[in-house]
Amino acid sequence: MTSILKVINPGLYSCVQDLGRFGQNHLGLTTGGCHDAYAFKIANALVGNPINSPALELTLGGFRAEVLAPITIALTGLNVGFTINNKNQALWQSIQVARGDVIEIATPHIGLRHTLAISGGVKAQSHFTSVSTVMREGLGCKIEANTLIKQQAPRFSKQKRLPANLIPNFCQNTPLNMVLALQHHEFSAADLNRFLSSSYTVTGQSDRMGYRIQGAALESPTGARFSEGINLGAIQVPADGQPIVLLNDRQTIGGYPKLGSVTALDCANLLQKRAGDEVAFNAISIEKAQNLNHLAQVKLQRALDALN
After folding, report:
1. 170 pLDDT band (50/70/90 cuts)?
2. What is the extent of the structural domain holding 24?
3. 271-274 long-range contacts, Cβ below 8 Å, gap at least 24?
4. Domain count, the chain
5. Is residue 308 part of a domain?
6. Taking 70 as the threshold, does the pLDDT of residue 220 lie above it?
7. How far is the CA of 151 from the CAs of 13, 20, 134, 136, in angstroms?
8. Is 3:148 a contact under the CB 8 Å cutoff?
């Protein structure tokens, strides 16, 4: 198997992801998967891959790698300093690189995560139907300096660029849409209003498993309860009253009371937040959440059609 990249500097945290590990919760294995399905699928489409091909997820930039064989690459996410041989490059387009080229991705001024797709896909060992890295479960591994990235299968792609109107806006100040949980009636009306009218600050105890946020404390309902399955975006309220939004690498079951769930679309926005950023929440109906998801699927299909 041909090595195509030698990682010189992996940055804060780089790993391999695909769309996720589904159907394994009964084994205690979480979903994992890419931080932003739209950005991930488009990155793969730009380099001519099937949309679930393994790609690199980069956290807080600082990534540098030497190209060992001719490949096509694409970087998606918020704007960031992105160079090849010290020449500036654009995101959301495919770029052909040659042996000896040096790819560098700077630390972003805003945002946190980017997807780097490589033609042919990244070669990684599959565990339980997926290559997704979940460090807490010992699946996959963190990419280190001198790691050799291998290509899953030889593939070449023509030059492609996503139309500007299909590039996400990544507005940093938009409230996160959430759907109230069945347990929201256990919280007082005053606490619910306080949560929805307050801003919370992302703490340093936030990662792909969940985001701890600090702000107006809520009174967590007391009393015994059964543990139950945890869905993506679940907003748990532990005894200290400070909410936790559970994300891709979340535990599979838990017993804290849940106020609601951030929509999958806005979980991707939340995963771009870093410690110190502020977040707010907007309660919507499940019907509106479904409509927003359908519109997102239409946008994705338009983008994929534009790249075929």
Report:
1. confident
2. 3-166
3. 271/35, 271/36, 271/112, 271/113, 271/208, 271/247, 272/35, 272/36, 272/77, 272/78, 272/111, 272/112, 272/113, 272/170, 272/172, 273/112, 273/202, 273/206, 273/211, 274/60, 274/111, 274/112, 274/202
4. 2
5. no
6. yes
7. 20, 19, 21, 26
8. yes
Is pLDDT above 90 for 5? yes
Residue 73 has a pLDDT of 97
> Per the domain annotation, does 97 fall within a domain?
yes
- Identify the DSSP state of 126: -
Residues 6+ apart with CB under 8 A from 39: 76, 77, 114, 115, 168, 268
- Residue the block writes with tokens 């479960």: 137
In terms of domains, do 146 and 189 share one? no
| pTM, 2 dp | 0.95
pLDDT digits (tens, 9 = 90+) for 15-25: 999 999 999 99
Choosing from 116, 145, 166, the residue where a domain stops is 166
The label of the residue with tokens 């030497």 reads: 66
Per the CB < 8 A criterion, the answer to whether 280 and 174 are in contact is no
Residue 303 included in any domain: no
**For residue 293, what is the enclosing H or E element?**
helix 286-307
Q: Express as a percent the part of the chain with pLDDT over 70.
A: 99
Looking at the fold, whether 218 and 70 belong to one and the same domain comes out as: no
| Cβ neighbour number for residue 58 with a 10 Å cutoff | 25
